[in-house]
Design a protein that fits this description.
Largest sheet: 10 strands, mixed
Number of domains: 2
CATH superfamily of the largest domain: Periplasmic binding protein-like II
Structural class: alpha/beta
Distance between the termini: 64 Å
Helix content: 40-55%
Order of helices and strands: HHEHEHEEEHEHEHEHEEHHHHH
Strand content: 15-25%
Radius of gyration: 42 Å
Oligomer: single chain
Shape: rod-shaped
């Protein structure tokens, strides 16, 4: 490429100099930009919102922000607290935030794509050990307790899930009386047979379900049974944001580990979502930071064990951001790699472009040279012809040809100027041709043959 540039500059073509100087400036700016990105001096600012009631949520966002600050990736987070998950989803739809923690069945922003699963909550019906209820269908005509949460938004979501499951089996919601009870109240309600069971939504392992099992066991002195739903995959298709899941044997521990066998059930997920317009490398960086934050949280937060990569085939129908998918699949390309690849490609293209210009310039010069050589050959022919016995009329015609060559070679409007060497040769040959014609003209005027 350098040789190509030197050849072009040697021809003293002003436009070629301007073109290559501009391209060189572009390459220098690109190189500086790549170094700046590699050093982490410029970062993409992102706003992230979260609802108030996700257990460990504030700690997760705080740790994620700290990891981002220490790792100096291409992004920078600014946490924003909202009163509800629905408000977080609305903020994303309005363009007020770039990332948000939302619950899949409550409010998924229409412009949001999943970057990571923060937690997966399973829907479980807990009944006394001696209860005859073996499925959700057995709740028809019964009273059921719904474990009360800190916020109305979550309670309403739990009640919607119950209504959807009952509706799948053709049971009217009015056939099942429900009452929201706190963790302190559910044990006595079951022991006094005020309710046939307790509906709980919570994560596998430590959490709401494990605590409810312990409370009922303590109040009744009998280990309760857990009821899921074998039709979870079919039911999930009727509930936006829900998905089927399987709880592992002994997931909730205890003196008599529950469940005693793998339990299929419905699940909803808390998701870290990003705007669909978020560049892939930015979403990939967020996914990488989430993975690092999980490693740090494992020793201090129960939430960490639930953080996982999103699966586009999980049955929820919720799309995954391609940048996050690329990271978790090991296919992520960093912005720096992309920039360096672009610079490398640009240098190749410039080399090809420069070589092409040299070829075109050489062809053009060859045409100019051939044109000049043709004039020289014709002038030599005129000179030879003038030395032979031509008449005055022929001499006039030949002089007109010489004038045309002069105008063509030395005129200011010439599109293809000849180089200095060709002009010098032309000047000499033109002089000799004119001299030959002048000598012949004088010979004719003096009567010489």
């Amino acid at each position: 490429m350098i040789q190509s540039v030197q050849l072009l500059l040697a021809r003293r073509s002003r436009w070629a100099k301007y073109v290559f100087f501009c391209l060189a400036i572009v390459l220098v700016i690109g190189g500086i930009a790549a170094l700046v990105l590699k050093a982490g001096l410029v970062r993409w600012p992102l706003k992230v919102t979260t609802g108030p009631y996700l257990e460990g949520g504030p700690v997760f966002i705080s740790t994620l922000t700290q990891v981002v600050a220490e790792e100096r990736p291409l992004v920078r987070l600014k946490p924003i607290k909202n009163d509800s998950l629905a408000a977080s989803a609305k903020a994303m739809e309005k363009g007020e935030t770039d990332l948000a923690v939302v619950r899949s069945d409550i409010a998924m922003p229409t412009n949001g794509l999943t970057i990571a699963i923060v937690r997966r909550d399973d829907l479980v019906l807990i009944v006394p050990g001696r209860s005859r209820i073996n499925s959700f269908q057995g709740l028809a005509g019964k009273d059921v307790a719904l474990l009360k949460s800190a916020l109305t938004e979550q309670d309403q979501g739990l009640e919607r899930l119950l209504d959807a499951v009952l509706g799948f089996y053709g049971i009217s919601p009015y056939q099942v009386r429900r009452e929201f009870l706190s963790m302190d109240e559910i044990g006595q309600a079951v022991a006094k047979k005020q309710v046939a069971g307790v509906l709980v939504l919570g994560p596998s392992g430590p959490g709401a379900i494990a605590n409810a099992i312990a409370a009922i066991t303590y109040a009744t002195n009998v280990s309760p049974r857990l009821i899921g739903d074998k039709q979870a995959a079919a039911i999930a298709k009727t509930i936006p944001g829900a998905e089927p899941n399987e709880i592992e044997v002994g997931a909730f521990g205890g003196a008599s580990p529950k469940p005693e066998e793998a339990l299929g059930t419905l699940a909803v997920t808390f998701r870290l979502v990003g705007r669909h317009s978020l560049p892939e490398y930015v979403a990939g960086e967020i996914a990488r930071m989430v993975s690092l934050a999980k490693a740090r949280l494992l020793s201090s937060s129960r939430l960490a064990v639930h953080i996982e990569a999103p699966d586009p085939e999980d049955g929820s129908g919720l799309p995954v951001h391609p940048g996050a998918a690329a990271f978790f699949n090991g296919e992520q390309t960093s912005l720096l790699d992309s920039a360096m690849g672009l610079l490398y490609l640009t240098s190749i293209l410039l080399g090809v472009f420069g070589s092409g210009l040299v070829w075109l310039f050489g062809t053009w010069r060859s045409q100019v040279s051939n044109e000049g050589q043709g004039d020289i050959d014709r002038l030599i022919a005129i000179m030879c012809e003038g030395r032979r016995g031509v008449d005055l009329e022929t001499i006039d015609r030949l002089e007109d040809e010489i004038d045309e060559v002069v105008a063509r070679s030395f005129g200011q409007g010439k599109a293809k100027p000849l180089d200095v060497g060709q002009l010098n040769v032309l000047s000499v040959v033109i002089g000799q041709a004119r001299q030959a014609l002048d000598t012949r003209r004088k010979a004719i005027q003096t009567g010489e043959p």
